[in-house]
Amino acid sequence: MLHYTVVFLVIAIVAALLGFTGIAAGAAEIAKILFFIFIILFVISLIMGLMRRK
After folding, report:
1. For the chain, what are the domain ranges?
2. Could you tell me the pLDDT band of residue 36, with boundaries at 50, 70 and 90?
């Protein structure tokens, strides 16, 4: 999932450099959403891993 976040971030940067503001905004928003989902899943798996040890 982090891979897709980086891909959409790169698409947003390239689109912004070329002047496609609508596409850049959409790709940046998708990258932001995927990044937060990744962070939430990481924290959940970290907590579950710490609980499993005990």
Report:
1. 2-53
2. very high
